[in-house]
Amino acid sequence: MESISLSGWGTGSSGAVTLPDLLPVSELASRLGIPAEAVELCRSAELIDLHLDSFIPVRLWGYDLFARHSGLLGGRFFGQLDVPRMLDGGLDGGMWSITTNPTRGAKGRLAVLARNVARLRALVSGSGGRLAIARTRGEYDAVRRTGAHAVLVAIQGGNALEAAPEGPAFVPDDLLTRVTVVHLSNSIYGATSSPASRGKHGLTERGRELVRQLDQARVFVDLAHIDRQGFWDAVKVHDRSRPLIVTHTGVCGVHEHWRNLDDAQVKAVADSGGTIGVMFQRSFLQPKGRANDGRLVIDHLEHIIQIAGEDCASIGSDYDGAIVPPPDLRSADAYPRLVAYMLERGWSDVRIRKVLGDNFLRAFALLRP
Q1: What is the DSSP string of 246-307?
Q2: The domain that contains 245 carries what CATH number?
């Protein structure tokens, strides 16, 4: 991945990162080929991405999140987000995921999780104030008043916690805001929705207990990746006073796929007061014969709205999670393109602001005021 330094880039006297100013609205609009109105609305709205995996390349090969990147892969798989492009695109907050390697033993997963939590904290503290961790809705608002991007710490793959008898309380200071109960493989907690499930279904008793622990700790129970029986097992044991969340998915009402939610699942999340983030992975979004562009995301958002109302739909890109987005969404400065497509569909400013961030913030306030 080629790294390009910008003028104005450097470190301050404290050694902290300093970043260049945002690209002007007109320049970004011209680069994206969209109306300036879309960039202005995207930047003025509260934009929150429910699933960012950009900590993966940092961990694997030392990817520099604070440099602006362009790459040979053309935005496929990794290299889709860095802080300069993220800020240009208007991203105000995000759930930054620490993804679990299932091939390690239980104690090894827990030890690596502890190291990665510390490493993510260090990355944030070295950002020169451009990033800050938020654990509650009140903290989120305080972070945003400083102009910083709000980092919400999340775990993808609840089996990272298998060796911790205290479950999510293992991570100190109520730092976790979300745990994705099951990832791409079966675990002690239950079955994945992927073909790797090998015929297993549902949550185990340990999985049900994890849901109860997350509820008690006021951590979002994320039902992305879980199989349908496990989804309904979680709904059954879940504390009904807490909102459920599905951070990155598509919906079967647009494209039937093992990774996507059916209409009954969409309604269940809405009924809990939660929200559903639509991801950018093309293969989960694109029905046969449909053009491969960012309007696919809008199709899925509109189906959620049709089924459950406009208070349930959100954005959950899965940037840097080894995904291949539509070509026009392969960089984090392209969020305004989604707004341009929303305006193209005749969406109101109110609906656009709900989907970009207000729906998540409402659910966050229910869980952690």
Answers
A1: EEEE-BTTTS--TTSB-HHHHHHHHHTT-EEEE---HHHH--TT---STHHHHHHHHHHHHH
A2: 3.20.20.140
Structure tokens at 121: 């904290």
User: Is 0.85 topped by the overall pTM?
Assistant: yes
Per-residue tokens: 304: 């959620």
Q: Which residue has the higher pLDDT, 49 or 165?
A: 49
* DSSP code of residue 99: E
- The answer to whether residue 15 sits within a structural domain is no
State the Cα–Cα distance between residues 135 and 133, nearest whole angstrom. 7
Dihedral sign, Cα of residue 300, residue 304, residue 306, residue 311: negative
Give the total residue count for the chain.
369
Model pLDDT for residues 269-279, shown as the tens digit of each residue: 999 999 999 99
Burial 24-50 (b: 16+ CB within 10 A, else e): ebeebbeebebeeebbebbbebbbbbb
Q: State what percent of residues in the chain have pLDDT above 70.
A: 94
Please count the structural domains in the chain.
1
Q: Which two tokens stand for residue 204?
A: 């185990």
